[in-house]
């Protein structure tokens, strides 16, 4: 009985070795393929980073323009309303407040435009540059 088992084992040994070898090859190929798919190309990473930055700039621009811009506009309107109802000796102080709010609102709009140049997207580079030059000169 022992000799029959030894004969069966020796006959099956090459088949077992071949199956183990095939298993190792398949596992090795799977690991190689998974490592290859994990590696991102530098250009893909750079493109993704630029897209994330662009999305964040658009979000910040919208928040500045919509939220903070609205609040500053409301404060400016309220200060102008208040100025019309104050005694003359206090109106000059309210004028300073109105001017400060106007200046702050203009700066918020400028920062919002820098973060998300809507004009550039809608008009193109040449027209946007012309408009900017006309505005600043």
From TrEMBL:
InterPro entries for the chain: Sensor_HK_TwoCompSys (IPR050482), Sig_transdc_His_kin_sub3_dim/P (IPR011712)
Keyword Transferase belongs to the record: yes
Entry superkingdom: Bacteria
Signal peptide from the UniProt entry: none
Gene Ontology cellular component list: membrane
Pfam families linked: HisKA_3
Segments crossing the lipid bilayer: 6-29
Keyword vocabulary terms for this entry: Kinase, Membrane, Transferase, Transmembrane, Transmembrane helix, Two-component regulatory system
Example GO molecular function: phosphorelay sensor kinase activity
Domain Signal transduction histidine kinase subgroup 3 dimerisation and phosphoacceptor stretches: 56-120
Keyword Transferase recorded: yes
Protein name, as recorded: Sensor histidine kinase
Taxonomic lineage from the root: Bacteria, Pseudomonadati, Pseudomonadota, Gammaproteobacteria, Pseudomonadales
């Amino acid at each position: 009985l022992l000799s029959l088992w030894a004969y069966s084992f020796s006959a099956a040994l090459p088949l077992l070795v071949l199956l183990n070898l095939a298993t190792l090859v398949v596992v090795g190929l799977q690991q190689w393929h998974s490592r290859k798919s994990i590696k991102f190309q530098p250009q893909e990473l750079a493109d993704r980073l630029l897209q994330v930055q662009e999305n964040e700039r658009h979000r910040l621009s919208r928040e500045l323009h919509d939220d903070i811009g609205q609040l500053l506009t409301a404060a400016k309107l309220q200060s102008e309303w208040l100025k019309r109802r104050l005694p003359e000796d206090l109106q000059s102080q309210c004028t300073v407040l109105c001017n400060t709010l106007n200046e702050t609102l203009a700066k918020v709009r400028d920062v919002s435009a820098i973060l998300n140049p809507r004009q550039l997207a809608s008009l193109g580079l040449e027209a946007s540059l012309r408009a900017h030059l006309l505005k600043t000169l």
